[in-house]
From TrEMBL:
The keyword Cell division applies. NCBIfam families: FtsE (TIGR02673). This is Cell division ATP-binding protein FtsE. Part of the ABC transporter FtsEX involved in cellular division. Important for assembly or stability of the septal ring. Residues 3-229 form the ABC transporter domain.
Length: 230
């Protein structure tokens, strides 16, 4: 599978991998290696320009555009730039996926309050994104991505704007979701984050290719503490 933007060179080339359902992956690699681009393929914002992408058992490489929203609803995304809805409160941003799923205000209230409390924003529920700090916006974005228990969670540097203690809490949230069956893919440069999830698998991108000379990444190493300590 490959991806190019416009007429440029391929930014991702020769990708051939399979995510094991229910697994927890970290995606690492130097800046510009193509991590965000790979995540965009996974959350269906880009189609591969070469090869095939199967998700949820369907070949989505050539699926009509109109078919994609239904699949996107099964994916939680934490964007690098958060993409919160500016005119909605933190509460309403987090509630959005539940509203889209058809839940009533009464059903939504408790879970959204609980989620905001978990990410340390109980007292910021009515604040709008432009009045929140970068770290607070990032936590709203994470709460929104996980609240509806998606089948796939894709997160781009989700702890880039928070301190170590909060990063710990957030990674616990991802692990809890993963235990409920969600496949998790987290792109990060933060090796200490990687070391906190001993059962996670590692994918490393270098120059647009998964660094996979031996095929190891299709069956990635599970001992990340050792990887992170290198
Ligand atoms: N929309 C775009 N149009 C053209 N080129 C792009 C576009 N998005 C990314 N690229 C290029 O693709 C390559 C990979 O970028 P990408 O953002 O996927 O890397 P990354 O590994 O996520 O980097 P970082 O860690 O800095 O976020 C880069 O050379 C970048 O300039």
């Amino acid at each position: 599978m490959g991806l190019r933007y416009g007429t440029g060179a391929e930014v991702l080339a020769g990708l051939d991998f399979r995510l094991a359902p229910g697994s927890f992956y970290f995606l690492t690699g130097p800046s510009g290696a193509g991590k965000t681009s790979l995540l965009k393929l996974l959350y269906l914002a880009q189609r591969p320009t070469r090869g095939r992408l199967r998700l949820f058992g369907e070949d989505l490489s050539e699926a009509p555009r109109s078919a994609l929203p239904e699949f996107r609803r099964r994916i939680g995304v934490v964007f690098q730039d958060f993409r919160l809805v500016r005119h909605l409160s933190a509460f309403d941003n987090v509630a959005l996926p539940l509203r889209i799923a058809g839940q009533s205000d009464r059903e939504i209230e408790g879970p959204v309050r609980e989620m905001l409390a978990w990410v340390g924003l109980a007292d910021r529920a009515s604040a709008r994104p432009p009045t929140l700090s970068g770290g607070e916006q990032q936590r709203v974005a994470i709460a929104r991505a996980v609240i509806a228990r998606p089948e796939l969670l894709v997160a781009d540097e989700p702890t880039g704007n928070v301190d170590a203690a909060m990063a710990d809490r957030l990674i616990h949230l991802f692990e809890a979701l993963n235990r409920l069956g969600t496949t998790v893919v987290v792109a990060t440069h933060d090796l200490s984050l990687i070391a906190r999830v001993p059962g996670a698998r590692l994918m490393r991108l270098e120059n647009g290719q998964l660094a996979d000379p031996t095929g190891e990444l299709r069956h990635p190493p599970t001992n990340l503490a050792a990887e992170a300590g290198r």
